[in-house]
Design goal:
The protein is an alpha/beta fold and 352 residues long. Helices cover 33% and strands 15% of the residues. The chain has a single domain, classed as TIM Barrel (Alpha-Beta Barrel).
């Protein structure tokens, strides 16, 4: 599938774009279509960056930075109905709320209010380039139910490198990571699906630099791992993983899950665990210790069944969490309490 570029909207769109990039994802294919791929190897595996003009965010006021997800090729772009509220509050481990989606774009405040109404009491807003990381840090500074993760996405690293700007971009991430409500470096890692061999050295250099930043600031790290399981695990062992390492949108199998848990890593499961072709994720879930499980949306992508392909949002966390509980043969409230405790252990409290 050919990725559709993000479109800057709102006040940000009026700025003069310079050369560069930003993170965005392709639309999910319709389930059962010829374009569908497995959860670890295709567009359903999480957010996928494409090039878009950079320089659309004012570093002094990132609040106006908004992107829009393309609706091309999607059958239904309406938001799904709200699920029954959870009995125990929980948190969204990884989301991209700077990206508007659907037939009606939701503001940050609206997203958080919808989430709160169903028992999702906070989100970790993840960056993937300088602009989205600045927006993420701003959201965390201004909203008590938001914590931030900041990073240069692995597929962005080669583009920054070709422009001679990778070191400067990482320096911005270092600066943002010092803010008290930035609690993770992410999403960083390796992606061998969308970056060719020439870009891998830049990815690796960026990944190792981000690992060092997580250690320097004493915060967690969220890993993007796509078709790069062995290389990611080897790098973490070689340079030493941060104390709190999270595999965002875990895409491995049961063997990888056991190994990751044995090393003390956390596995975050997104809506694709509900997809028919994702048995590897359900097998991984079955062997993951309860104290290593997190849940996320990766919104607006990876909307759980039965709403696959429609816009995703933190208020849909209960759909995925109840699916996880059913797979594990657990009460949903019991699992929610465990996941909430895990999330707070990794990131600390939301309301300071």
């Amino acid at each position: 599938m050919t990725p559709e570029p993000a479109r800057a909207s709102g006040a940000a769109a009026g700025n003069s774009p310079g050369p560069g990039i930003a993170a965005q994802a392709v639309p999910e294919p319709v389930e059962g279509s010829a374009s569908e791929h497995g959860p670890a190897t295709g567009p359903t595996a999480g957010s996928t960056p494409v090039e878009r003009p950079r320089g659309t965010v004012d570093a002094a006021d990132p609040s106006q930075y908004v992107r829009e997800r393309s609706v091309d090729g999607r059958r239904d772009v309406s938001y799904p109905p709200a699920p029954e509220p959870l009995g125990i509050p929980v948190y969204d481990n990884h989301t991209h709320l700077e990206i508007e989606d659907g037939d009606t774009g939701l503001s940050l405040h609206e997203q958080l209010e919808r989430a709160l109404a169903v028992g999702v009491h906070g989100v970790v807003q993840a960056g993937g380039d300088v602009d989205s990381s600045r927006w993420s840090a701003w959201a965390a500074r201004t909203q008590a139910r938001v914590l931030a993760a900041v990073a240069i996405h692995p597929n962005e690293a080669p583009v920054y490198e070709r422009a001679g700007e990778l070191d400067a971009a990482i320096a911005v991430i270092d600066e943002l990571a010092a803010e008290p409500r930035v609690r993770a470096i992410g999403e960083t890692g390796l992606d061998f699906f969308r970056t060719d061999a020439d870009g891998i050295p830049a990815q690796m250099r960026s990944f190792e630099a981000h690992i060092a930043l997580a250690k320097k600031h004493g915060i967690a790290m969220q890993i993007h791992d796509r078709d790069a399981h062995d290389a990611v695990l080897e790098t973490l062992e070689r340079v030493g993983a941060p104390e709190k390492t999270v595999f965002h949108c875990f895409s491995g199998d049961a063997d990888m899950a056991r190994l990751a848990a044995d090393r003390g890593y956390y596995l975050s499961f997104a809506g694709n665990v509900t997809f028919k072709n994702a048995q590897n994720l359900r097998d991984a879930l079955a062997v993951t210790p309860l104290d290593r499980i997190l849940v996320e949306t990766d919104a607006p992508f990876l909307t759980p069944a039965p709403y696959r392909g429609r816009p995703n949002a933190p208020y849909l966390i209960p759909v995925t969490l109840r699916f996880l509980a059913a797979e594990l043969g657990m009460d949903a409230d019991e699992l929610a309490a465990q996941i909430a405790a895990n999330t707070l252990r990794v990131y600390g409290t939301f309301e300071d």
